[in-house]
Amino acid sequence: MPLMKQATAWSICDETTTGFWTHPWINHETILEDFLQEDLSEEDLNSSVAEWTTEEGTWDWRRLNSLLPVEILALIAGTDVPLPGSGEDKHKWGIEQDGNFSLKSAYCLASDALGKEEDAIWKGIWKWKGPNKIKHFMWLVTHNRLMTNKERAKRGLTTNSNCPHCNNTEETVEHILRRCKKTEGVWNHFNFFITAQDPSQDFKTWLLNNMKDQSKGTEFGIICWCLWKQRNEEAMEGKSFSEMGLIKRISACFTINTNAVTNSACIGLVKTSNRERRFISWKPPKEGWIQLQSDGSYKRSNRSAAAGGLLRDHLGKCTAAYACNLGSCTITRAELKGAVEGLKIAWEKGYRKVEVNLDSNTAVSILKEKGDTSSNHGLLALQAKELLSRSWTVNINHVYRECNSAADFLASMGHDLHFGTHQLDTCDPKLLYWLNYDARETSQERDILI
Ligand SMILES: [Zn+2]
């Protein structure tokens, strides 16, 4: 009975030591840290499941709402809140309180494959760089929740389940976004034609592979979104588009991105009274200043950390780019190291007015010497202090990660380099893509605590 073996081997950790962010306590695939939308202090990152509950015995939504995407919040909502004082709690998914084998645990293990696919979809969508409304749209796409003619016919809303452009072909989500003859020219125009036709990739694989693509993933999502919008306008409002009209519309969407689609509905977003939706975009430094953007990256799979960053002038031109492979260290240390390496380069290049933009609150606090967190980072914090005490002007700011995408790209690149810091070619095409992405002031939506 392989299932039973797995179930027995699996009841290893008790609730008192289960890390909320770092252990797979929701199911055996999902590590919540992978879905974090904001940086947490190390202390919070290492906190236990019980620490994210309230005295009233509920999950601490006030803190959680801003930290995780709605799909993950939904998973947490569906999980029992641990009871304080009820003793060592061994209850894990599928493992009964007394550790006995149960049908429920067998089911949980047997449905493992489904869980993995779901996990891949969430990660793919959550890591996709683009407006939240398109992320939610892509989630609907991957779960076949769009009202195509096939779905409408099923519900008796129409008698014709076919695509209006392709005779005798059912209008499914895959048809609209990938197979319809009306979209061929569009995918071709944006150089996606080959993968769109690739018979070896099923629909979900095709979606996720394209969304993951570092250089073209964002455009891919926007094209899908535009195809669906166009299809709705045709079906609901009787409008018609030429292929060229559609291509122009998509190109405009790339440029103004969310501005073009702002008025569309957002699905399933968590809304609370003290939050407000704002548009976040990258802003160049003032003339005469140089901007240092840096970022850290942590891969849980091999417990490795990396950092990267770049310097940009007031015109948005990149004058230096770097990435570091930091081996095994924490994400906070990686964020801090990224900033320190960037400051060294800025000093060596003779810049004396530097604006430092980081998306890690903890790193910003350490650099500004707020709180006592700097003591945990010993030499590195001292090094930062020494750099900042030199005769130059350095302003340190926290920015949202939505406008730090070029630095994020470089930090990820650090994992593939040798240990240490490397200065990189500022003309690397992939880097240029992310620089343009930022320089277009691509607005991104974000719910912000007010
Ligand atoms: Zn069609």
UniProtKB/TrEMBL annotation:
Protein name per Swiss-Prot or TrEMBL: RNase H type-1 domain-containing protein
Q: Which PROSITE patterns match?
A: RNASE_H_1
Q: What are this entry's molecular-function GO terms?
A: nucleic acid binding; RNA-DNA hybrid ribonuclease activity
Where is each RNase H type-1 domain found?
286-416
Biological source species: Linum trigynum
